[in-house]
Amino acid sequence: MMEVTRLLDAAAAGDVQAAAELLPAVYAELRQLAAVRLANEKAGHTLQPTALVHEAYLRLVGDQPRDRNGRGDFFAAAAGALLRILIDAARRKGRQRHGGGRRRVDLAEAESIVNEPSGDLLDLDAALTRLEATDPTAARLVKLRYYAGLTMPEAAAALGLPLRTAERNWTYARTWLHRDLARQS
To answer: What residue segments make up the domains of the chain, in order of their start?
Structure first.
């Protein structure tokens, strides 16, 4: 963990070699995070964990330099990039020119037509956007916990909150999202 923090600090300072060493140092964790995110997606998703990791890393490296305070912030930013990629893919899939009204059918199971995946990820993103408008800290906590896979103590540290406050925010955010999603459906 200290190696990743050192590489992040050196890369932020402009060390090209450190930036080149960063991907191999975090690749396994990013791939595991991507695999978990994709496992939670509906069937019929065409992205693979490796492609998702590479796209997220390119977005992170291509972004404007940010002040990241170590490993937790880096993986939170990576989770945010993974989420944006998945949301973009879900939106693209829903567009007419990308087969928006069509259902995907596996060739091996051509006789039983599978329903198109619902917009669950898009609904959650919209709900998180609404939560962020009312409580940005709670929304960021959800992103750190759910999308970055951070534990409660790690997420609390990344947000600079006492653990007990983070736990209360987590309970509030989950309840708020549940009610909001129930109202929208």
So the answer is: 1-117, 118-185
